[in-house]
Amino acid sequence: MILVNAIISGLILAIPAWMIFRRAGLQPAMGLLVFIPVLGPLLALLLLAFMDWPATEGGGGHGG
Question: pTM here?
Fold first, then answer.
């Protein structure tokens, strides 16, 4: 039962992360980082926060 809960919880985090990375123009498989215990979700958030997003380069982005 614990394994089933872990898989469901992982999918609840991994699917949105996959979609966010894809929409940002990054490699969607980076969303699988959330499966790494403790540091994975933190690493995924740091990558999203500090990487340049190819999808926003060349116009349509905010700020300057």
Answer: 0.73
For residue 33, what are the contacts with CB-CB under 8 A and spacing of at least 6?
17, 40, 41, 43, 44, 47
Q: What is the largest CA-CA distance in the chain?
A: 50
Look-up of token digits 């996959």: 18
Instruction: Report residue 22 as tokens.
Output: 């894809």
Closest listed residue to residue 17, CA positions, set 37, 42, 38, 50: 42
* 42-60 pLDDT tens trace: 998 898 899 888 887 765 5
Spatial separation of the C-alpha atoms in residues 13 and 22, rounded to whole Å = 15
Question: Tokens at residue 49, please?
Answer: 């926060």
